[in-house]
Amino acid sequence: MRNRIINSFLVIGQIALLSLCLWVAIDRALWIYLAEQGSGQLHIILNTKKVEELQEEGLLSKMQQNKIRQIQKVKQFAEHELGLQKTNNYSHFYEQNGKPVLWMLTACQPFSFQEKTWTFPFIGNVSYKGFFNYQKAVLEKQSLKTQNYDTDISKVTAWSTLGILPDPILSSMLQKDDGELAELIIHELTHATIYLSGQVDFNENFASFIGRKGALLFLEKTYGKNSDPVARYLKQIADEDTLKSFVLYHKMHLEHFYNTLNKQLSLEEKTYLKEAELNRITNKLYLLKIYDNPIKIKIATKIKLSQNAFFMSYNRYDAQYYRINTAFKKHSDNLRDFVAYVKKNKSID
To answer: pTM for this structure?
Structure first.
């Protein structure tokens, strides 16, 4: 659920390949990056197949066909019931063969939550950087580590081209259960409907809010409020909320900790104290009555390796949930009306 990304700058890369005039407007390193991203996006587009063709050729399993039909139902629901933008998304299929197709790099200062940002033409500042080539992501991560940034590389499960190009169904999507799949599709369609330049945290938090609320409405309408799919999704939401609250609370705790660090301490001393704080946080994590130990070990390992960069993911997707929910209830408590209001006013206020 965590790894989603707005991929419009990848589309910009394709345009950049055809627009040499941009050479004078952006630096060479950015030009090269955009060209590489455009190439990666183009590779996916050229290797998708129409869903109808795959079905006619008998190349999809029954499970895959059912999931694809579910995606189309969610898309129709999102467009007709939630007022999200009608697009040609999810009419094509891309087979990943069990491999991630995109990675997201995040970086953060080691003793504050000041993120590293990258600036792209037309979309402004972005607090992550996407890579179709994993080794390229690792190289940039290593470069940032030499600059003393905390860093994180995460697999991306979906992205949006903001309606500029039709987004494909990725084969990994079909492994998700009904609630998670509905949330993902509605999240990405929200990006195609509302995207505020330079406001990454708001865009992601808003899409997360609409994705969750919309998915619950879809499940209730499709299966009934007292159905098993609704019960499973509500349990999943409850567990996620517990973890999100835990992470965001300890991010706030770490902010206070960093602000009170003695400025006379050496880098080694500050690092030692920081790691002790992170160890305390991971020890508390194991006391949470959610998930099993393997999942908790995975999260704890992520905290240890990514440190501050780990917490920024939750800040990007979840920190504004209650603020947005308050605005939602204030305006109408109707999801379709709320989407229309934000689309018109470019704000929840």
So the answer is: 0.88
